[in-house]
Each structure stands twice: as structure tokens, then as C-alpha cells.
Design brief:
Helix 2 packs antiparallel against helix 5. By secondary structure, this protein is of the alpha/beta class. The longest helix is centred in the middle third of the chain and has 18 residues. It has a single domain, classed as Uracil-DNA Glycosylase, subunit E (3-Layer(aba) Sandwich). It is 39% helix and 11% strand. The chain has nine helices and six strands; from the N terminus they run H-H-E-E-H-H-E-H-E-H-H-E-E-H-H. It starts with 22 loop residues before the first helix and ends with a helix. Keywords: 4Fe-4S, DNA damage, DNA repair, Hydrolase, Iron, Iron-sulfur, Metal-binding. Belongs to the uracil-DNA glycosylase (UDG) superfamily. Type 4 (UDGa) family. GO terms for molecular function: 4 iron, 4 sulfur cluster binding; metal ion binding; uracil DNA N-glycosylase activity. It catalyses: Hydrolyzes single-stranded DNA or mismatched double-stranded DNA and polynucleotides, releasing free uracil.
């Protein structure tokens, strides 16, 4: 457990609720019965995907990373340039902030699972288009079914609107649990938004605390 006298890099609004308890006790694995190979099977099914036009401009398919039995899953929008180059989600500046957010919760990237709505970078980081989402979303659902998380955190407007099939703004969706195929889903602001609006870190920390409390219920 890290030294509680040292300020957390994320600088949440107040000390972590996990200060006195081990994360392993508060965040049990969601499903010991689901074999880790299930995600490998989903990745094998995707293959060298040519199901949409993004295949012609991508460098790497960005499948997802983390614990295949994670109780908490983060879902972003789409890979950016750094993610496309490395083949891993959330590795740029926004990804570094997401790592700090996860650590402020008393967790690590290795104990959660991180993925995106689509697996290939849209040119110039534009929003994913409907045909691209239609081609890719079945694989995200299969990832969720394989992992069987207790909670999904949707990062940003596009992720929340896509998963919940709504046009409501993130300001209206965030901070509340919604149902997604039987899994509790809580939207919050994207880390990239926090880089531009650091004053909203307190708002996101309140959202993350709700997720922490939900995971503590076991």
C-alpha cells in the first residue's frame, strides 16, 4: 500500500476511501469461472480485420489490455496516434492521466480492463462513423461477455452515447449508474477533457468514488 502521506498524482478531491484496506479485498475478481483464453478467442475472431474502411489507414488493431477477469472495465472512444503506433489503449497523455485516476482508486492498470468502442484509429482522430461502430461493436460486447465486469466506466461523450444508445450529453449522463446488458455502467468525463479542464477532476473523482463503493459491495 503506498505511503498515505504522499500526495496522489491524480490529486483527487479527498483521500482515497481505500486507505485502510487492501484493494484485493475490496475489488474481488468478477468471475473466476471465465477462462482467460476467452478474450484470446475474441481477438482471434477479429484477426487482421478488414470489416470497415479503417483497416486501410491503421497501423495496429488496438484490442484491449488488463485483467481478463476484471471487476471494473473502462471503455473509451477510439485509439489515437500513440495507441495506433503501440497497439495498446490509452498510452498517450490522456492514458497517463487515466493511469493516475486508476491508481487513485487503489488499483492498477493490471487489475482493470481497458478497451475502446472501436479498435482502429479514425483518420485525424475524427469521431467513429456508424458503419465503423456497426463493424466493431459486436467485438466489444463479446469482450464484456468474456470479462463479465461488475462495473463499466464509459469515458467521455462518445463512449457513453454509443453504449447507452442515446444522444444525451455527458453532463446529463455522468455520475449515475445505467444498465448495459445487465452490467452497471457509469459515464464520466474523458481524461482528455480533464487535460483541458483540470478543474473537473473533482467531478470525476466523485464519479470514481461511486464506482469504488459499488465494487465494495462484492
Amino acid at each position: 500500500m503506498p505511503n498515505q502521506n504522499k500526495p496522489k498524482p491524480y490529486e483527487p478531491a479527498e483521500p482515497s476511501l481505500l486507505a485502510a484496506e487492501a484493494p484485493s479485498a475490496l475489488f474481488p475478481i468478477a468471475s473466476e469461472a471465465t477462462p482467460a483464453s476467452t478474450l484470446s478467442e475474441v481477438r482471434d475472431e477479429i484477426g487482421d480485420c478488414r470489416r470497415c474502411k479503417l483497416c486501410s489507414t491503421r497501423k495496429n488493431i488496438v484490442f484491449g489490455t488488463g485483467n481478463p477477469h476484471a471487476a471494473l472495465m473502462f471503455v473509451g472512444e477510439a485509439p489515437g496516434a500513440d495507441e495506433d503506433a503501440q497497439g495498446q489503449p490509452f498510452v498517450g497523455r490522456a492514458g497517463q492521466l487515466l493511469t493516475k485516476m486508476i491508481e487513485a482508486m487503489g488499483l492498477s492498470r493490471e487489475t482493470v480492463y481497458i478497451a475502446n468502442i472501436i479498435k482502429c484509429r479514425p483518420p485525424e482522430n475524427r469521431n467513429p462513423q456508424p458503419d465503423e461502430i456497426a463493424a466493431c461493436s459486436p467485438f466489444l460486447l463479446k469482450q464484456i461477455e468474456a470479462i463479465r465486469p461488475k462495473v463499466i466506466c464509459a469515458l467521455g461523450t462518445f463512449s457513453a452515447q454509443t453504449l447507452l444508445e442515446t444522444q444525451q450529453k455527458i453532463s446529463a449522463l455522468r455520475g449515475k449508474f445505467h444498465d448495459y446488458h445487465g452490467v452497471k455502467l457509469l459515464p464520466t468525463f474523458h481524461p482528455a477533457y480533464l487535460l483541458r479542464n483540470p478543474n473537473e477532476k473533482k467531478t470525476v473523482w466523485e464519479d470514481l468514488k461511486k464506482i469504488m463503493e459499488e465494487l465494495k459491495k462484492g
